[in-house]
Specification:
Blueprint: E1 9-13, H1 17-28, E2 34-39, E3 41-49, E4 52-59, E5 78-81, H2 85-97, E6 102-108, E7 111-117, E8 123-129
Parallel strand pairs: 1-4, 5-8
Antiparallel strand pairs: 2-3, 3-4, 6-7, 7-8
Length: 130
């Protein structure tokens, strides 16, 4: 069996790509690195470092009837790894500075999490392993 490859990209479906671009630009401190219009959608791409990217996709056929719900089959949350508890505290301060409601630091036997949601309710997390 070949070695498991790293995740190259994550594409999230959003209800309004421009609203999401504003949120993720403020969150990541970066502007989108590209726009894709080669399908019945618009996708804006952010580079995350290490060759990975995040795509925000607004589909033309989206119904807008269902918001993200981590309790339904599919995506539960997106977790971003941070190096230390000190860095996690810096992210909490950053979220406060841009007006994003978050959980505060949540300790568990396996690590510490900082949970929050994007404008579509997609669950996001900064996480440091213990």
């Amino acid at each position: 069996m070949p070695a498991l490859p790293a995740i190259d990209h994550l594409a999230l479906t959003v209800s309004d790509v421009e609203v999401s671009v504003l949120f993720y630009s403020r969150l990541l401190g970066a502007e989108p690195s590209g726009t894709m219009l080669d399908g019945p959608f618009i996708r804006r791409k952010f580079d995350l470092g290490g060759g990975a990217s995040l795509g925000l996709t607004e589909h033309q056929a989206a119904t807008g009837e269902n918001r993200f719900d981590e309790h339904h089959p599919g995506l539960d949350h997106v977790g971003f790894s941070v190096a230390s508890s000190a860095e996690l505290l810096q992210w909490a301060a950053h979220l406060d500075s841009i007006g994003v409601v978050h959980s505060g630091l949540i300790d568990a036997p396996y690590g510490t999490a900082l949970n929050f949601k994007d404008p579509d309710g997609i669950a996001l997390e900064f996480f440091v392993s213990q």
